Amino acid sequence: MAAIVIKPLTPQEVEERLARDLPGWRLVDGELRRRFATHGWKGSLMVANAIGHLAEVAWHHPDLVVSYGGVEVRLSTHSPKGITARDFALAAQIDAVVLWQPARDGILEGTPEDPGAAYLKDKA
Ligand SMILES: C[C@H](O)[C@H](O)[C@H]1CNC2=NC(N)=NC(=O)C2=N1
């Protein structure tokens, strides 16, 4: 089987792919970044844990800034240093999991609207 070649993308390539595939993410200081806003610390920790699970399964680990009101995800590749297809692949999976919502008319109810249950502020 041919080895997968991972090479850093140029800033222009990164911006093009962000606009096409990951509109919620930005290139800042050489990292792909996205913030997921929550209604509080417990929600932020749940988001952080969901991302932590994906990172460990992928064996590609973002930095996380966990705050009372949200989680900022910062993704880059250490070797080769830069932004690579690995960062885009994990970012897309993070979006898919964190922003996922049950179908409106489906059998799963979704998080109730009342303040006691409020969790994510950003939903797909
Ligand atoms: C030591 C080295 O960072 C690791 O082998 C793997 C695992 N996690 C990783 N995580 C990230 N974000 N970038 C990497 O290049 C990377 N490489």
Report the count of strand segments: 4
Q: Strand percentage, roughly?
A: 15-25%
Second rung of CATH, namely the architecture of the domain at 28-98: 2-Layer Sandwich
Question: What is the straight-line distance between the termini?
Answer: 37 Å
What is the CATH third-level topology name of the domain at 28-98?
Gyrase A, domain 2
Helix content: 25-40%
**Nearest-angstrom radius of gyration?**
16 Å
CATH homologous superfamily designation of the domain at 28-98:
Transcriptional coactivator/pterin dehydratase
Poorly predicted regions: none
- What about the largest sheet? 4 strands, antiparallel
Q: Any idea of the CATH class of the domain at 28-98?
A: Alpha Beta
H-E order: HEEHEEH
The number of helical runs is 3
**What is the general shape?**
elongated
Q: What class do helices, strands and sheet pairing give?
A: alpha+beta
Q: Looking across the biggest beta sheet, what order are the strands in?
A: 1-2-4-3
Task: Describe, in short, the structure shown.
The chain has 124 residues and is α+β, with helices and mostly antiparallel strands. It has helices spanning 11-21, 41-58, 85-98, and strands at 26-28, 31-37, 63-67, 70-75.
Structural account:
This protein is α+β, with helices and mostly antiparallel strands and 124 residues long. It has a domain at 28-98: Transcriptional coactivator/pterin dehydratase (Gyrase A, domain 2, 2-Layer Sandwich). It has three helices and four strands, in the order αββαββα. A four-stranded antiparallel sheet has the order 1-2-4-3. β3 (63-67) and β4 (70-75) form a beta hairpin. α2 (41-58) packs across α3 (85-98). The protein is elongated.
